[in-house]
Amino acid sequence: MGCCLSTSSNSSHTITEKTKEIDTMLKRDFLKDRKTYKILLLGAGESGKSTIIKQMKVIYHSKKPFTLSEVMMYRQQIYSNTINGLWIAIDCAYEQSLSLLPQNEEFIDEFLETIPKLFDYTTPPPVPISGLKDLWSDASIQRVFKDAHGFAIPENLSYWFDNLDRVMFRDYIPNVDDILTCRAKSIGISENNFHIGGYDYRIFDVGGQRSERKKWIHCFEGVTTIIFVIALSSYDQALEEDLESNQMQESLLLFDSICNSRWFIRTSLIVFLNKNDIFKEQIKNKPLREVEYFNDYQGKNEDVDASRHYLKQRVLSLNKNRDKEIYVHTTNAKDTKNLSRILVSVTDIILKENLNLLMI
């Protein structure tokens, strides 16, 4: 009887091992045959997600990254960035009871007041360029722009005024730098497809403003990887939709909810600490400890590396799953070479993480 039980036990063990082998082979074949990966690009508003998508088009669709209709759309947005950004600065100056030079007040009354604050032009706005330059140079406008983050004044505004003669030329066609600098809110969900190293990547860029986040749930099924973008430069920046809220704090709260969500227990998570170029300059004028949410920072005020490491640790500390590895990259979305190198690492991570499914 004992022999019979032993034989039955050994047979059962053999079957179990065979089942595991077959299961592993099926998984391996599935991953080998799998050619498409679904990626969510998430982050709070103004984190730079859309710029990353534009850079990917430049890198992987190098012959023709943008269609003519897209270029014309970006030109329209650039006019909007320039005039709407200037209006934000003007309103901020008035809110601070700052006076503008009389000739600049006259220019606003005579020309700018005729343009809606949320205008939509396909050609340059009908205002004298010299008047725009004088208004931009006004001491009060420059004063509020120095604290652009506190007033939610667009970071790219100085770029447009540095290039005003070119941008306002009637036959102006945006170049790649202009398109990368151009800013527009991500509304809804946009899908972008890239073929990289024999694999297809479906990347979904989801609007980061609070009003857009309720739509995220529809993207969750079948997600391979999440790339979560946080603007390093947002540590002292107000939210555009809520000037009383800190943009970095908003990003951390959002990351917490995504990182620890039941939807993404087995989803690989990559963090881009973005806008490092702006952060390096910004930290010299506004140390972390001067911001309420980050006043426990213990490093030197102007130490860029220590400040960045502190923010990185704030992000990583939110992960409640010790078995979940979070990959962090420091990025400058406008630097094509920098992002190109990082994207190579990202695709390697995606493939590696999916192969790790074999161990589960």
Number of domains: 2
Q: Tell me the span between the first and last alpha carbons.
A: 37 Å
Could you give me the name of the CATH homologous superfamily of the largest domain? P-loop containing nucleotide triphosphate hydrolases
Uncertain segments are 1-5
CATH architecture of the largest domain: 3-Layer(aba) Sandwich
Average pLDDT figure = 85
- Main sheet specs: 6 strands, mixed
Number of helices: 14
Would you tell me which CATH topology of the largest domain applies? Rossmann fold
Portion in helices: 40-55%
Beta-strand content: 5-15%
Keywords: GTP-binding, Magnesium, Metal-binding, Nucleotide-binding, Transducer
Binding site for GTP: 46-51, 205-209, 274-277, 333
GO molecular function, one term: metal ion binding
Protein name: Putative heterotrimeric G-protein GTPase
Give a structural overview.
- It is a single chain.
- It is built from 14 helices and 8 strands.
- By secondary structure, the protein is an alpha/beta fold.
- The chain folds into 2 domains: 36-64 and 186-359, Rossmann fold (3-Layer(aba) Sandwich), CATH 3.40.50; 68-181, GI Alpha 1, domain 2-like (Orthogonal Bundle).
- The strands form 2 sheets. Strands 2-3-1-4-7-8 form a 6-stranded mixed sheet. Strands 5-6 form a two-stranded antiparallel ribbon.
- Strand 2 (189-196) and strand 3 (199-206) form a beta hairpin.
- Helix 3 packs across helix 6.
- The longest helix has 32 residues, at 2-33.
In short:
The chain is of the alpha/beta class. Helix content is 48%, strand content 14%. It is built from 14 helices and eight strands.
